[in-house]
């Protein structure tokens, strides 16, 4: 519409005067024997098309060009192929009376109301000015009508700009609302990508239980259990000649520490209270060797345990 309005303002003013002169010549020679009605019609149509085609052609080229620019020059030839679903009465009624159809109908009514009010305001003013055009010649009359039409077109164009801006804003919000996922959809997507939280929790419980069982088995074979004496418990194993340094095979705090002490007592594993050493060794991962800075303390504890066992063996021999 804007492109057509530009052509009207810049092209027609230089053409309608020659068009009116051509029409005057045709009217003057309308009764000549050498010109038939068909010939006169062809001449009039040629001059009329010379006015209309440039304006309409420029508007059409602008429409197609802006449409391609808006879609990123995306062409979809299959969109013009016949589709029985488009003429289905049921689907048609669904589109018309559905939520989207009702919204589009409401917007169409608002557009008609706004544009109708604009047209009424411009037309009322133009009709009042038309009373002074009685007796005006063809060329000045065409100029006045052209300006009235241009004023109406610019008013409608401004109205369409407002409508288009509101429509773009509404469609943007509507699309965002459709793209938002519900709480259930978020849960389903999380299950598909990350797995069911209940299953993952169950797997973690099973892994924790298996790890505890493995630790309890390791406690039975431990050399000594170092305690805090109630909050921490760390089980160490050392085989002379088989490894360079003692290893941490089990560790726990509070309830787990109490369970380690119970298993150690049931399997006659010595329990040695040493709070600083127990707190220092607890953060270390399982199956890691005791750090060098704790060698002397750990070595003294293991030597103490061996002396106790040796003494118990002597007493048992007696």
UniProtKB/TrEMBL annotation:
Q: Which GO terms describe its cellular component?
A: plasma membrane
Listed SUPFAM superfamilies = EscU C-terminal domain-like
List GO BP terms, alphabetically. Answer: protein secretion
**Keyword Glycoprotein attributed:** no
Q: Name one Pfam family in it.
A: Bac_export_2
Q: Looking at the keywords, is Transmembrane present?
A: yes
Which Gene3D superfamilies does UniProt cross-reference here?
6.10.250.2080, secretion proteins EscU
Instruction: Give me the segments passing through the membrane.
Output: 49-75, 108-128, 148-170
Query: What are the protein's UniProt keywords?
Result: Cell projection, Cilium, Flagellum, Membrane, Transmembrane, Transmembrane helix
PANTHER family the UniProt entry points to? FLAGELLAR BIOSYNTHETIC PROTEIN FLHB (PTHR30531)
UniProt lists the family membership as follows: Belongs to the type III secretion exporter family.
Protein's recorded name: Flagellar biosynthetic protein FlhB
Q: What is the species of this protein?
A: Acidomonas methanolica NBRC 104435
